[in-house]
From TrEMBL:
Enzyme Commission code(s) on record: 2.7.8.5
Localization: Mitochondrion
Residue span(s) of domain PLD phosphodiesterase: 215-241
Pathway: Phospholipid metabolism; phosphatidylglycerol biosynthesis; phosphatidylglycerol from CDP-diacylglycerol: step 1/2
Key words of the record: ATP-binding, Lipid biosynthesis, Lipid metabolism, Mitochondrion, Nucleotide-binding, Phospholipid biosynthesis, Phospholipid metabolism, Repeat, Transferase
CC terms in the record's Gene Ontology section: mitochondrion
PANTHER family, per the entry: CDP-DIACYLGLYCEROL--GLYCEROL-3-PHOSPHATE 3-PHOSPHATIDYLTRANSFERASE, MITOCHONDRIAL, CDP-DIACYLGLYCEROL--SERINE O-PHOSPHATIDYLTRANSFERASE
GO molecular function list: ATP binding; CDP-diacylglycerol-glycerol-3-phosphate 3-phosphatidyltransferase activity
UniProt feature coiled coil, ranges: none
Source organism per UniProt: Cebus imitator
Identification of the protein by name: CDP-diacylglycerol--glycerol-3-phosphate 3-phosphatidyltransferase
Major subcellular site: mitochondrion
SUPFAM superfamilies, per the entry: Phospholipase D/nuclease
Length: 303
């Protein structure tokens, strides 16, 4: 089985895209920083660099194929050959692929994978809910981190969580407050990144209330990764997706290349996102685009 992620062409497309943004310095600066982060390892890992994910947006349209729409027969295989020219390709044995059948199975598998993780837990979602099941997931992360500190040998376990800023900040009890105990207890091992769209700034940010401001732009990646195993899904981290809201879930077990790919992708988006602090403020990294004030040249915090 071949697993392919959406890809992009070379740096020339970045320059072309940035050239289409006159009068939008904030967005141009964010795209520039994201391009720098995603392109760092392109020579070393060219076949699976995360910045290739933008290919469908930046590449010429693929000509329509008029052959019969049957992808199960050998005659239909040629219809997909063009994909390998645009995107990274990963070979995965069918024995490493498992399709989950229910929200409960998805929830229990995530908890089980968190408990046995030794090196990394990477979770990207729109938001983390605030109910008892979501708290159970946070408690599971806390228990695993605690065990890593008590291990005979120092653990290098890192937890990286990427959410959307506006959705994750909605209400007094929200994704941020759910994750604060992890940051406070394990500041060296936990990173919580909150992507904030650069389109929501100035008067627009002040005038548009909660919920409505989420229509301006959101972070919507859904990846749940534990060491070298990955769950690809459309499900958010909330109780309805753990109980009765059916979604798709594909579990890729022991697929190091795919896990590395998505770790780099989440890290790249996290690098241009706000960083949650232990006092429930968010920090702007040096040189990134401040969602309210534009590009900044020093580290700072705001509520």
């Amino acid at each position: 089985m071949a697993v392919a992620a959406a890809g992009a062409a070379g740096p020339v497309f970045w320059r072309r895209l940035l050239g289409l943004l006159p009068g939008r310095p904030g967005l141009a600066a964010l795209l520039g920083r994201l391009s720098d982060r995603l392109g760092r390892n392109r020579d070393r890992r060219r076949r699976r660099s995360p910045w290739l994910l933008l290919a469908p947006l930046l590449s010429p349209a693929v000509p329509q194929v008029t052959s019969p729409p049957c992808c199960l027969c050998p005659e239909g295989v040629h219809r997909f050959q063009w994909i390998r020219n645009l995107v990274p390709e990963f070979g995965v044995s069918s024995s490493h692929v498992r399709v989950l059948s229910s929200p409960a199975e998805f929830f229990e598998l995530m908890k089980g994978q968190i408990r046995v993780a030794k090196r990394r837990v990477v979770m990207a979602s729109l938001y983390l809910g605030t109910g008892p099941l979501e708290q159970e997931l946070v408690d599971c992360l806390e228990s695993t981190l605690e065990k890593s500190l008590q291990a005979k040998f120092p653990s290098d376990l890192k937890v990286s969580i990427l959410l959307d800023f506006t959705r994750g900040s909605r209400g007094r009890k929200n994704s941020r407050t759910m994750l604060l105990p992890l940051l406070q207890r394990f500041p060296e091992q936990v990173r919580v990144s909150l992507f904030h769209t650069p389109h929501l700034r100035g008067l627009l940010r002040l005038l548009i209330p909660e919920r409505f401001n989420e229509t301006i732009g959101l972070q919507h990646i859904k990846v749940y990764l534990f060491d070298n195993s990955v769950i690809l899904s459309g499900a958010n981290l909330s109780d309805s997706y753990f109980t009765n809201r059916q979604d798709r879930y594909v579990f890729l077990q022991d697929c190091a290349e795919i896990a590395d790919f998505f770790t780099e992708l989440v890290d790249a988006v996290g690098d241009v996102s706000l960083q949650l602090q232990g006092d429930d403020t968010v920090q702007v990294l040096d040189g990134m685009v401040h969602p309210y004030k534009g590009t900044v040249t020093a580290v700072g915090s705001f509520p």
